[in-house]
Prior knowledge:
8 helices, alpha+beta, two-stranded antiparallel sheet
Amino acid sequence: DDTGEALGLPAAGLTLTFGFGPGLFENEDGDRYGLAARRPPGLERLPAFLGDDLDPAASHGDLCIQACADDPQVAVHAVRNLIRMGFGIVSTRWMQLGFGRTSSTSTAQATPRNLFGFKDGTANIKAESQDVVDEHVWVSKGDDAAADWMAGGSYLVARRITMHLETWDRTSLREQETLIGRDRVEGAPLSGGKEFDEPRFDVTGRENKPLIAKNSHVFLAHPKNNKGVQMLRRGYNFTDGNDALGRLDAGLFFLAYVRRPSTQYIPMQMRMSR
């Protein structure tokens, strides 16, 4: 009844999160299971963003399982046995193993670093800010009339983002910091201060140019420049060996929970991709 690879291991903080994709409710063949009327209006496939190079075989799906644990063997064990339970009814479309964290979700956590070497998620929603979590993460009853059953749930945006690390490593530190909008060591905004100080986008330097470039990650992603909307980011690093050219196949497995993808994630990603 059990595959055995986790015998003797502790639970390691294992959590399981389940979600539904649009295809569970309706696909090109129509209403598959009589659930089309219960589909949340906000549950749509993401639009195409400039620069996307998506692998159709590793995109979309009807069901989502996220297993998190302090020991990856425990997480893999959980997913493996859930897949076994579904044999003959469901099949695995794609899977991604991540490690570490690329954003802190609590004030008790230090901000982790992504594979670019920069702190990631400084301005992330923190669990202690319950009013912010309620406003930006959880769906409320009345948000979607057709899907009141989803109240207390959230929409997950999942994006596997390849990082061209060899190119990045040949880039000067000054240019890296300009592209991000923060210094690498402390994570402080280039407008001055410390990591958690608010970026000041109006501060200028030489030749009256803004210290935080308008095409930097911080400028494009900060809530101040996105009508105040925020996301609960909970992403991970990944490294899947190397590609056909011998480059590292590595990057960011971006995961974000939002109350409304159409106003919180999609407009921001449209701006960033441009």
